[in-house]
Amino acid sequence: MRISSIFSGLFGLLLSFNLAAQSPCDGADHTVLAGSFYFSPQDLTISEGESVAFVNEGGFHDVNGNVSVLSGESFGNPEAFSLGAVNASGMDVCIGTHIFTVAGTYNYDCSIGSHAVNGMVGSITVESAATGCNDDLACNFDSTATSAADCQYNDGTFDFSSGFWLVPINALDPDLGCDIQPSVGTITTVISEEGQPVTVVVDADLEAYINGAVADGLLTSLQAILLLSALEQATFSFCGNTMTGIAGLNTIESEWNGQSWSLGDLGLNLAPVSTLADGCSDPNALNYDPCVNPDDTLCEYLAVACDDPLACNYDSNSTGTTDCNYFDTNLFTLGENDFIGLVDDEDCETGYPGAYSLPVPLAQDSTGGPLYFVLFPDVEGFLVQNGFEIAAQDIATVSLSVCDTVMNYNSLVIGDTDLYWDGMGFTVDLYGSFIAPDSSFPIGCPDPDACNFDACSHPFVTDDCTYLELGTLATAAGDTGMVTMTELDSLTFVATPGDSLIVEWDSECGELIVDGNTATLVAPEIGDCEVCVEAENAEGCEIESCIVVTVLGGIEDASLAKWQLMPNPAASELRVVWGGETTLFEVVDLNGRRVHTVTLQPGSQVLDVSALKPGLYLAGPLGQAPQRLAIQR
Fold first, then answer.
1. What is the model's pLDDT at position 342?
2. Distance from C-alpha of 410 to C-alpha of 310, rounded to nearest angstrom
3. DSSP of 41-79
4. pTM tops 0.85
């Protein structure tokens, strides 16, 4: 029983060693292997704060850094350390890991049996952590330093918190005497963090500015490429008045001249925004200064002589209108065209329906007085004919000003009111209309007959319109426009659509016998009607062409129909069928005044009535009972 108890205790002790040895050794900075009478490497050099893992490759070993087995005295290590014994049989087992936080030399051995006597000893040299700055770009470069841990790249001579002014040298006005002129420059962000080189942020705005400078001839294309590449890649230091940048193998270096650093090869001057004083950038001000950070709250002006409340610069304490300004906005220019729209259109979901607007340019007379609208006679006539007579009167009598986002509107019709810019123009609530400048309308196609009609597009620019090809509808004999037939005849029509178009015929004249691009009208009904052909492409774009057909009675009724005219109402052409001798055809107005005459030949004849104004008339051959004729357009 005694022997059994001893073996049981020994087994438990060995089991505890093996269980302890299961702790992981992963993640250590260095590894020392332990085996039969060796530590490998026997001598190891590490840095302060690094860890060492001890791994047992076979046998029963510990790591003893306290009292030397050989001398019986303390090792005198900078700090004591030890790892308990573990047993390894057939596989590597982790003895343990120790982090060395104090610099110095550490000696240790294996305290098991005669392992140390047989050479199982080792040492670890712990060096102090690297300090200093070994980056020659930094202000505090030290050739003896072992790291860049303490490098400083901005010694505080300049404040970069507000960024840099970048100004093309070729954009500078030499008469102004300053290297940085903000009106022709741009500001870019500078990143300056403790212990890190200074960098410049190259974003879309900076790229657009530099590309614009190339377009304006201020930078060459090569300079722009090199400049963007250098700014994207370079790291900078600012030490005293010296700027140094490293971009790949290239070095950028410049000395502060009191106003800027000059990068002559790249065509650019740059300076911290903080080095410029704040001042007035308005050339019209008394204290205008083109060499300062713009702050127009500092501007000073002469007293203004403008006592007109309509003006943008109205001053209740002044007298006279000598200095009045009635147009002061950056939204559009006074020289561009302007349009009024009175019709809403559901097809225009993103803006104003420019396709249905009318031109009413803003103008100003030679005295520099209030603005007014130019009302063209055709525009006035259109407004009156379509029920907008009040709007026409309003436009004709208004005087106004445009000040920033407000149109100060003063007319005899709607009185004094303010109209507000909504992103495209000004809305007039009384009419449910808009007033918008030329530049607010996108270029598209304003023609409703085009395939790519865009109701929102500029009303005058049709260059982008595309159309289907459908020739004028004609009879088989080649007649177009208006034709005549009797109820006993048949008449064939021919369409000439473009390729890949689907053709559809339509008529209320009678029965159409369709054969592809031709159709024959049979059994027509007496009177005026139309035969139309419509063509459509795969995208759904349509186009139509029509012929006006006048169907006369049969031969037996010809003597009863002495003369006829068609269509009625007419626009610019009138067909007259006359069964008598050559005579005079006349048109008189409702006051009995003759307004049009033409010689009428027997048969069918087309007369030009485009000179007649829209309205009602009496027309007919001389000596015949006249018929009422309506002219509509």
1. 81
2. 8
3. SSEEEEETT-EEEEEE-SEEEEEE-SB-TTTSSB---SS
4. no
